[in-house]
């Protein structure tokens, strides 16, 4: 406590280059920060996109990626009062400071001070890093407020959520992003009700979490859209009732969805980050009240493929970050509902590997063979 820690981390040193397991030095936490011993971490498509360097403006190397994890607090800064050493916690990339006008507003989970910022590569408190390459004194940049591909990481307390130590840390790691984003989009952003019809575009971990959340809410029809037929069997376990493979169609996807639903889905969820798929999701909803929830991350600065006059039909579009839930105040009760059986979390953990095999875990995701590969540190 209060000392620099030397530990192992998986460092990204260039776009699409294999991550390098190397020794890094981790500074003690500053006033409002905590230092966490990471025990489990996993990989999502946001990590993959950053590793590939798909958005040139977000490139920063060397960098420690990762934002889905769980662990135990090692030490805290002098102004941290709600967390203490040995607490079981998960990091969240979209924080909640509790002080800004947005945190006080009941209709949003945006945070002015600690909201997700893919451009930020240093700690928000002082604009400096807490990671250093051992022996070289080289600064290593942060990622999404978290940087969990390291045995120890430093995070502001606004981006850390405490949990009952009796809960399984491996499953809790899923709530750092994937499950919270997908299920939350259904429960908080859309507020799907029993008997309604849902279409899910993209059946990765987040899309399947959307399906699981819709099933938990009692949706009468859950349509899954994906070009990977291997996702369909997994989708059945998550509650999907109908499947569409766009590569097997002779007509636009939205026409098939409207026929299956008798007019259109009450809600569609775009989970791919593809603009043309976003348009199909929008056109798949019911005239008069259909809502499309934008969940996927669109890395390129392109404009929406929707004509303003199309909004006059009563269909609407809404963006969603971190499932629309406030991390520190709403995540514990939300996770408790899921852990009590509302969502089968075991279905999301398809692989487990030791941390040193992180590059294999990346390849599993690239090949479409995994939903979440949990890495044990």
TrEMBL record:
The entry's keywords: Metal-binding, NAD, Oxidoreductase, Zinc
Organism expressing this protein natively: Punica granatum (Pomegranate)
Stored InterPro entries: ADH-like_C, ADH-like_N, ADH_Zn_CS, GroES-like_sf, NAD(P)-bd_dom_sf
Family recorded in the similarity comment: Belongs to the zinc-containing alcohol dehydrogenase family. Class-III subfamily.
Subunit structure: Homodimer.
GO biological process: formaldehyde catabolic process
Gene3D superfamilies tied to this protein: Medium-chain alcohol dehydrogenases, catalytic domain, NAD(P)-binding Rossmann-like Domain
GO cellular component, one term: cytosol
Cofactor field: Zn(2+)
Reaction equations catalysed: a secondary alcohol + NAD(+) = a ketone + NADH + H(+); a primary alcohol + NAD(+) = an aldehyde + NADH + H(+)
EC number(s) given by UniProt: 1.1.1.1
Protein name: alcohol dehydrogenase
Keyword Transmembrane assigned: no
Lineage: superkingdom: Eukaryota
Molecular functions per Gene Ontology: alcohol dehydrogenase (NAD+) activity; S-(hydroxymethyl)glutathione dehydrogenase [NAD(P)+] activity; zinc ion binding
Alcohol dehydrogenase-like C-terminal domain residues: 205-328
Enzyme class label: oxidoreductase
Keyword Membrane part of the UniProt annotation: no
Entry-linked Pfam families: ADH_N (PF08240), ADH_zinc_N (PF00107)
Domain Alcohol dehydrogenase-like N-terminal: 31-163
